[in-house]
Amino acid sequence: MRLVLFDIDGTLVDCGPQVRPLFGAALVEVFGTAGDVEGYDFVGKTDPQIVLDLMTGAGIEREAVEAVLPRFRELYLERLGAGLTRERMRLLPAVVELLERLAGRTEEAALGLLTGNWEPGARAKLARFDLNRFFPFGAYGCDSADRSALPPVALGRAARVWGREFAPEETLIVGDSVHDVACARAHGIPCLAVATGRTPAAALAAAGATWVVPDLAAAGNCDPLLSC
Q: Are the CB atoms for 147 and 116 separated by under 8 Å?
């Protein structure tokens, strides 16, 4: 059995430009500034890491940021839940076809999430396309600001859900950023990188992805289990 852990943004869905203003407005309300939110690269970062980077970059002490991070999380997730619209989002190619195929092969595939989103935000994004049904568990930005700390969390939760341990070589991380690649490599986990996000295929290959494909429709060219 293969454990397949999916990133969300740029891998399964594209939320378009609507999340950054919601994030920035919550920063202003909690911290009095959004810092360089317009210039900051969100790709592959965990939600708490984004807050820490922006606010320490704006001159606020890390301890002060961490002290009110729960309040920011609550406010941002409220804004995201109310303001995220499917009409301004895009379901990426072959996502449903691949997930349905894997979900129907329960003796061969176990599905989970590995995302930098806080869990309620992750679930809100997936809900816009009814994708939560595929993912009984995951590892999230709630678990650590450091993305490389998330694979062991996901493996532990997978073991509880499926009643068996998954070795790194039995696991696959699917993502679209160099941070997805790095967190997989940090734990000896193969990584399928898709160039459907904002990171070029050449950069994903240079970061050390096991496979790089233009989109999930091509995933079967790497691994027969993932054939759409």
A: yes
- 184-222 pLDDT, tens digit each: 999 999 999 999 999 999 999 999 999 999 999 999 777
Among residues 123, 165, 116, the alpha carbon closest in space to that of 143 is found at 116
Question: Which of 145, 179, 152 minimizes the C-alpha distance to 166?
Answer: 152
CA 4 – CA 113 distance, rounded (Å): 8
Residue 16 Rama label (left phi>0; alpha psi -120 to 50; beta): left
Question: CA-CA distance, 190 to 169, in Å (whole number)?
Answer: 7
Give 3-state DSSP helix, strand, coil % of the chain, rounded to 5: 50, 15, 35
Q: Which amino acid is at 113?
A: L
* DSSP output for 109-134: EEEEEE-SS-HHHHHHHHHTTT-GGG
Using CA atoms, how far residue 1 sits from 108, 112, 161, in Å, is 4, 13, 14
Chain center to CA of 205: 19
Tokens of 152: 């062991």
Overall residue count recorded for the chain in this entry: 228
Q: Which is it for strands 13-14 and 138-139: parallel, antiparallel or unpaired?
A: unpaired
DSSP helix/strand/coil, 153? helix
Q: C-alpha dihedral over 148, 150, 155, 157, to 10 degrees?
A: 170
pTM reported for the whole predicted model: 0.97
